[in-house]
Specification:
The chain is mostly helical and about 300 residues long. It folds into two domains: about 1-170, UbiA prenyltransferase (Tetracycline Repressor, domain 2, Orthogonal Bundle), CATH 1.10.357; about 170-305. It has 15 helices and no strands. The longest helix is centred in the C-terminal third of the chain and has 29 residues, at about 275-305. It is flat, with a radius of gyration of 20 Å.
Length: about 300
């Protein structure tokens, strides 16, 4: 892998560049789902401890992002949507990114163990390792199933939040994991349908590159069907209820409908309208996950009252 360093005359790194290194948009999802996992757990946690726990989980997520950018700097420089990231643009060196990633990883795991419990800290350490090594270094460049298997890294945060409160794992936390795990492939493959050339140029074996768009469309629809039972099952557990179930049924009906529309699309028609349907389903997928976890919070609040 080509080593990329800040070139002579490159703009000097600013604070925002180091924040960008931590993938703040991805971190926001980590923070939100981890917070929900912690708050809906059946154990009361002191607000200060809860705040610190979520903060250190967020730092762990940011550390994973920095390690991902460190290793993927070569392909980030090729892809249109990533070439302005701090390392390809020359504002931050790969060595800096590696040091920040390792340093924040150690800090996040150690502090989470001290403020919450060591089971949750070990879980966070495993998640960082899974994302940085199993997904980024191994799966991403090796198999079109990279998103499927690697999606586990993004599905662990609510389990970590739950573990911060309870010190363990339960059916509720496993179903929150399943909700994100089975949501990840249709979410990213919908994006890949209208970003195929980026992955092709970078040599990333995304499903659209290795098997084509028609196969990707079938996989998207199949995963929306697999996802729905797990999402609704969560509503039948101790953290679910009628409010969550109503939201989940509506969202899954819309998501399955979107998957069906993608499946039925003719590629020429998709090109003609600029992948309008695929982009709409991708935006729906963002709201799908956010509203499911928001509904869990709302259900917990209603249950408390």
């Amino acid at each position: 892998m080509t080593d990329i360093h800040a070139y002579e005359g490159a703009p000097e790194a600013e604070f925002g560049d180091y924040v960008a290194l931590l993938k703040p948009r991805v971190m926001s999802l980590v923070v939100f789902t981890a917070m929900v996992g912690l708050l809906v757990a059946p154990v009361d946690v002191h607000p200060f401890i809860a705040f610190c726990a979520v903060l250190f989980i967020a730092l762990g997520g940011g550390a994973s992002g920095a390690l991902n950018m460190w290793y993927d700097a070569d392909i980030d420089a090729v892809m249109l949507r990533t070439r302005n990231r701090p390392i390809p643009s020359g504002r931050v060196t790969r060595d800096e990114a590696l040091a920040i990633g390792i340093g924040l990883s150690g800090l996040a795991v150690m502090m989470l163990g001290l403020v919450a419990n060591w089971f949750a800290a070990g879980f966070l350490a495993f998640t960082i390792f899974f994302y940085a090594v199993v997904y980024t270094i191994w799966l991403k460049r090796w198999t079109p199933q990279n998103i499927v298997i690697g999606g586990a890294a993004g599905a662990f945060p609510p389990m970590i939040g739950w573990a911060c409160a309870t010190g363990g794992i339960s059916i509720e936390s496993l179903l929150m994991f399943a909700l994100i795990f089975f949501w990840t492939p249709p979410h990213f493959w919908a994006l890949a349908l209208f970003m195929k050339e980026d992955y092709h140029k970078a040599g990333v074996p995304m499903l659209t590159v290795t098997h084509g768009r028609a196969t990707t469309r079938r996989h998207i629809f199949a995963y929306t069907l697999v996802l729905a039972p797990f999402a609704i099952w969560l509503g039948l557990t101790s953290i679910g209820g009628p409010l969550y179930l109503t939201v989940s049924v509506v969202l899954n009906a819309l998501f399955i409908r979107g998957g069906w529309q993608i499946l039925r699309r003719d590629e020429d028609a998709a090109i003609a309208d600029g992948y309008a349907v695929e982009k709409r389903v991708f935006r729906l997928s963002l709201m799908y996950l956010f509203l499911h976890f928001l509904a869990l919070l709302a259900q917990d609040w209603v249950g408390t009252w």
